[in-house]
Amino acid sequence: MNSIDKAFAFQEKALEVRSFRQQLIASNIANADTPHYNAVDIDFADAMKKALSNVKKGIEMVKTSEKHLSGKAKDTLYGIEPMFRTVVQPSIDGNTVDSNIEQAQFTENSLKYMSTLTFINGTIQGDNLALRGGNN
To answer: Is 47 part of a structural domain of the chain?
Structure first.
């Protein structure tokens, strides 16, 4: 890992985790009318710790045939397991999605994703300015 990779490692992981969370929230919104669907989310701080340490949970499965499935959950990132959201107002059909909460979480996560991109852009612009000796 070179120095540029090290400088942006935290932001890279933050973007990956934010993107993963965005997918989960979008899935919740898409399934708002699906009976018995349980809304899921992640704890961002815990997810970042796992992403930064690259912790892998569970036992790695070995494929002994090309016909075997990989054995890895396709909806996980760095071993981050989504958790069920606490039900605020249960519905008759067992669905736990609260559209207002999901939309608010989606918007908040989007803003934080964009803030991370803005921070990265500012860092790159500052580095470019330093490399040019402060001249535009």
So the answer is: yes
Tell me which residue range forms the domain holding 118: 3-131
> What stretch of H or E contains 83?
strand 83-84
The count of structural domains within the chain is: 1
CA–CA separation, 98 vs 77, rounded Å?
A: 25
Backbone angles phi, psi at 7, to 5 degrees: -65, -30
Grouping H, G, I as helix, E, B as strand and the rest as coil, residue 84 is strand
Predicted TM-score (pTM) of the model is 0.79
pLDDT of res. 58: 46
Cα(14)–Cα(48) distance, integer angstroms = 7
Condensed to tens digits (0 to 9), the pLDDT of residues 62-77 reads 677 777 666 555 557 8
In a domain, 116, yes or no: yes
Q: In whole angstroms, what is the distance from residue 117 CA to residue 101 CA?
A: 24
Rounded to whole angstroms, what are the CA distances from 2 to 7, 9, 117?
9, 10, 21
